[in-house]
Design goal:
Elements lengths: L1 H19 L19 H15 L2 H14 L32 H14 L6 H15 L19 H7 L7 H10 L4 H8 L6 E3 H8 L3 H4 L4 H13 L10 E3 L11 H7 L6 H8 L4 H12 L1 H16 L6 H4 L12
Antiparallel strand pairs: 1-2
Helix pairs in contact: 1-7, 2-4, 2-5, 3-5, 8-14, 8-15, 12-14, 14-15
């Protein structure tokens, strides 16, 4: 009975997510700027090369920024908006506060594009191009980015809290959040692989390292040493909330499939990551973790496909009332 109930709940969640999903086929094309700004992608790539060369962690920052943008109102650049008297942006929502970086990189890219092609390339497209280039520059796959997004004049701090997957979310909650965006379980596992680069804050992994880490991990000498290091930077009693640790301690600045190897050993830093492999409900997700651990090419191919799907989540309102911002931090006046 318990298994049947679980299956029923899962099916119900899936049905609800599919029913209320808001993503649709967007009016995006690969040659959108062919005549209006033919050097757009080259400009983005050059600036990203400078940013990642100066600090490899900038790659993960831009990739995360893109993800957080697309999960709230679609990929519309809303995450880039600063708070004003008239607008409460997404940057200072609890989930995003102290977690998002790279805004200055997008500013520099946008300034270059405004010099070359004023009022032409949207901030939403800039961020989508930049996320692709960030991935490539640290060893990840390349994919073609459809363009033509418009920038939103609005933002939603409340949707940040409801839409963005949390570090301590259970598997069914994560599945429901991805399916709400019309992203499949396969997309979820592949996109989670972005955690092969980047850092997590203590506030997001404290519960994990003082909770079930030792239950899921094989606790080899390496795992034991790693756990001690994590606890030294993230005290149980509180404090040090913004201290950071790599989500992939094997190759934190290289985009590869070692993240999945870490999950196989039960050493995922975030509880939500380890759920992909260790959850009793995760038959499909655990099989995908194994697949991507065994075959990096399969992971790269699916990640590329899933990133295109992520980038194609648009905000339909922007095609009625959107714009191309001159400054990504503020709506045009």
């Amino acid at each position: 009975m318990e298994i049947k109930s679980t299956i029923f709940i899962f099916s119900l969640i899936t049905l609800c997510c599919l029913t209320f999903s808001h993503a649709a086929d967007p009016p995006l094309t690969l040659d959108y700027y062919k005549s209006t700004c033919p050097n757009a992608e080259a400009i983005v790539r050059k600036e990203m090369e400078c940013a990642v060369t100066s600090d490899l962690r900038n790659a993960a920052a831009i990739l995360r920024l893109h993800f957080h943008d697309c999960f709230v109102q679609g990929c519309d650049g809303s995450v880039l908006l600063d708070d004003t008297y008239m607008l409460k942006g997404e940057k200072n929502a609890p989930t995003n506060l102290n977690a998002l970086k790279g805004f200055d990189i997008i500013d520099r890219i946008k300034n270059k594009l405004e010099s070359e092609c004023p009022g032409t390339v949207s901030c939403a497209d800039v961020l989508t191009y930049a996320a692709r280039d960030a991935t490539v520059l640290v060893g990840g796959p390349y994919w073609h980015v459809p363009a033509g997004r418009k920038d939103s004049k609005t933002a939603s701090a409340s949707l940040v809290e409801s839409n963005i997957p949390g570090a301590n979310n259970g598997l069914l909650t994560m599945i429901s959040k991805f399916m709400y965006q019309s992203l499949s379980v396969t997309d979820m596992v592949a996109l989670s692989g972005a955690h092969t680069i980047g850092m997590a804050r203590c506030t997001n992994y404290r519960a994990r390292i003082y909770g079930d880490y030792q239950r899921t991990a094989t606790m080899s000498s390496i795992a034991d040493s790693n756990l001690k290091t994590l606890k030294s930077t993230c005290p149980a009693a509180g404090g040090g909330d913004n201290n950071e640790s790599a989500m992939d301690y094997i190759s934190p600045n290289l985009f590869d499939n070692s993240y999945y190897h870490i999950l196989l050993r039960g050493e995922g830093l975030l509880a939500s990551d380890q759920e992909l492999y260790s959850s009793m409900l995760g038959v499909q997700t655990s099989n995908l973790v194994k697949k991507y651990a065994e075959n990096q090419l399969a992971f790269f191919e699916q990640f590329s496909e899933s990133m295109v799907k992520l980038g194609n989540i648009t905000n339909p309102e922007t095609y009625v009332d959107g714009e191309v911002r001159k400054n990504c931090r503020f709506v045009n006046t």
